[in-house]
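Subject: Sanity check before I submit

Could someone independently write out the C-alpha cells for this chain? I want to compare against mine line by line before I put it in a report. The sequence has 493 residues.
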Amino acid sequence: MKTEITALSAIELRQHIGRKSLSPVEILEAFIEQMNTLNPGVNALCATDFDRAREQAQAAQTAVMKGQPLGPLHGLPLGIKDLTETAGLLTTFGNTRYTNHVPKQDNSLISRLKAAGAIIAAKTNTPDMGAGANTRNAVWGATGNPFNPSLNAGGSSGGSAAALATDMLPLCTGSDVGGSLRIPAGYCGVAGIRPSPGMIAQSGRKLGWSVLNVVGPMARNIADMALLYEACVGDEPMDPLAFPVDRTGIWPLTAIDLSQLKVGYTTDFGCCVVDPMIKRVFENRIKAITPMVKACEPIEFELGDMHRAFDVLRAEGFIAQMGEQFAQNPDSLSPNVRANLELAQQMTLADRAWAHLQQTNIMQAFARKLQQYDVIISPVTPITPFPWQTLYASEIDGQAMRNYYEWLSLTYVVTLSTMPALCLPTGLDESGMPFGLQVTGGLYQDGRLLAIGHALEQAMQSDATLARPKPNLAHLTEDHADLRSIVTHPPGQ
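---
Independent answer below. Compare away.
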C-alpha cells in the first residue's frame, strides 16, 4: 500500500488529505520508507528532517480533523535543493566549507512553502555551489540517474530530479542559471520550469538585478508543477526583481485547445552543437506534435556570439557570490567553480557592457518569434546521459567544447532570452534514456506556458513511446556505494 501511496500525484495526495481518505502522517511515512529503500541506489538526498517532519505531519493531520483551513500543499512532503537555506536543517551548497552549516532562518521561498502547508522532508543533492550539470560534490557524493545509476542525473538540480523520478518525493524545488533545472528534469524524465525572472521571488540573491539565477518548481507532471508554482509565488520586498503575479493565472490551469496552437521549433537555435541521435529523436517528437496543432514550423535565429555573452554574465555572478572565498581559499572550491572565477578575473567593464547589449538583442529576437508563435520547442540536452565519473561532456558530435558548460548551450541560450521555459518529458531516446522537450513561452506568460505544457503532456499520454518514462524501481534497491566514493568531508565531522 505504501508504494501505491508514493505513486500518487501530488494533486491526488492533496485531494486524499482533503477528503480524509489518507492522512498526512500516512503519506509522510510512505515517502520516508521509499527514501530509505531507494536513496542508496541513486544518492539523491542530502540531509533529512524526518523527526521534525513527523511532528509537522501530525499537526497537519490535527488541522484536517478539526476542519481548519488547509493550504494548497497541506501535508505534502517536499524536497528542497541544497542551495536554498532552511532553518535548523543542514544546508551545505555541496561545498566542504559548509559541511556543518545549519541556517538560523529560512529563505523566504521556504517560508511561503511552509505557509502553504508543505512539510520539508529532505534536502536534495547539487554540484559544488551549483556549478555544472553533473550532480556530484565532495560532501555528499554523486547522484546517479534512476534509469541507470552509473550515468549522471544532470544538474545542478539532479538530486531533486532523481528523487521525483523514483517517487521518493512528490514535489521538489530546483534552481536554474544555464539549465540547472531543465537538464536534470530531462535526464530523469520529470517536469521542471525555469520561470520568468522575478515571478518566483526570494531573499538572499546577492546580484539582485541579475536575471540569470532563478528558482523554480519540479514535479512528476505539469499539473503538479503548476500547483507547486502557485505556492511559490508571493511578495518579497528584498528581491528587486519581484514581479506582481496573479496566482489565478497559474493554478488551476487554463484549458488549451491544441488545434489552435502555433508552434515554432528549432533543433539547435542556429548556434548549438547537437548529437545526431538527439536530432533524430527530436524530429520524431515534432512529427508526433504536428498533427495536434494548427501550425508546427521550423524557425531560424541570428543570435550573434551568445556563447561569449553567457561566459561574461555567468562569470559576473560567480565573482559576486564566491570571489571572496576564491581569494582566501581557492582549494575549497571545485574545478568548475574555479574555472568561472578565473574567467571572471580576465574580464573588463567593456566585456560586461557588451554582454548586456548582446543579451538584450537575444531577448528581442525571441520576443519577435513569440509574437508569431505561442511557444518555441527545442531539445533540452544535446546528448544522452553520460557516466557520472565524467565531470562534463568535452565533445559533442566530434566538436570539442570550449569549457565545462558549453554543452549546456541549448538551455543557456533560452536563459539569455529571459523567457520562461519548461522541460516536458517525452519517452526515451535511442539509448533507452529519458528525452525531454524544452518548451519556451512569452515573458511573464508562465501560467499560459504551464497550461500549454499540460495540454501537450495529456495529448501524448496515450502513446507509450511519448508518455513520461518511469524507471524500474526494483533495480534501485542495491546500495551503489561508488556514488559516495568522492566524499571527502562527511557532514558532522
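---
OP: Matches mine. For the report I'm noting this point. The domain at 2-484 is CATH 3.90.1300.10 (Amidase signature (AS) enzymes).
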